[in-house]
Specification:
Blueprint (H helix, E strand, L loop, with lengths): L2 E3 L6 E6 L9 H12 L3 E5 L2 H7 L14 H11 L4 E7 L1 H15 L5 E5 L24 E6 L7 H4 L8 E6 L10 H4 L3 H16 L2 H6 L2
Length: about 220
């Protein structure tokens, strides 16, 4: 099952997976999808099986290891059957899973790029447990949108990582893991940051390199 936002005939569809602990219709995911749809994207959200099972009343099943979700992400791409250009990604763990299947899909021309929102570079409080190994040689054009105070990877921490030159990182001032800033401190609202994210996504998908890669 998918949740759709935005125009059906949009030039670019963005497929988003949720984070480890919140479903596809969480307030954060919904606000993100609405912002992207407002910028002209068609947005499709889906849930991994463990989260769908929670919705069906099967307790609070913990998420499996992210790697085990790779086949489910590919199955979602297959089920969606996007007609135009497709960007895959997601929130936190959802973006991480997308990043692990992106190159195989990109190299066969099935996707145009990867959009990660609050990438979980490491578990909170455990900066030594990096989840960046595959990002060093990523061959898919990628946009990571990260809050500067995200406990899964701050600006200072990420600046020391070896990341593929195809990865762009958009930093949102004072944003947390949900990209939310403290308005009194930053002068920005959540809506401001989501608007900036959506505008950056438009500019990023319109780059000539994206179109060349999918011809």
């Amino acid at each position: 099952m998918f949740l759709f936002d935005g125009p059906d005939q949009a030039a670019v569809t963005i497929l988003l997976a949720h984070g480890a602990g919140a479903p596809m219709d969480s307030p954060s995911m919904t606000a993100t999808a609405k912002a992207l749809a407002g910028a002209g994207f068609r947005v499709a959200r889906f849930e991994f099986d463990y989260m769908a099972a929670r919705r069906a009343g099967d307790g609070r099943r913990p998420p499996p290891r992210a790697e085990k979700l790779n086949p489910q992400y590919i199955a979602a791409v297959d089920a969606l059957g996007a007609k135009g250009a497709l960007v895959i990604g997601g929130k936190s763990m959802g973006g991480r899973v997308a990043s692990m299947v992106a190159d195989a899909l990109f190299q066969t021309g099935r996707i145009r790029g990867l959009l990660c929102l609050g990438y979980p570079f490491h578990p909170p409080g455990k900066p030594e447990q990096l989840r960046t190994g595959h990002l060093a040689d990523l061959k898919t054009p990628t946009l990571i949108v990260q809050g500067t105070r995200d406990e899964f990877g701050t600006r200072e921490e990420v600046s020391t990582y070896r990341l593929s030159p195809l990865i762009d990182v958009l930093w949102l001032e004072d944003g947390d893991h949900d990209l939310k800033p403290r308005k009194r401190i930053s002068g920005f609202s959540s809506a401001d940051h989501l608007r900036t994210m959506a505008e950056a996504a438009i500019a990023w998908t319109e780059r000539p390199t994206h179109h060349a890669a999918t011809r």
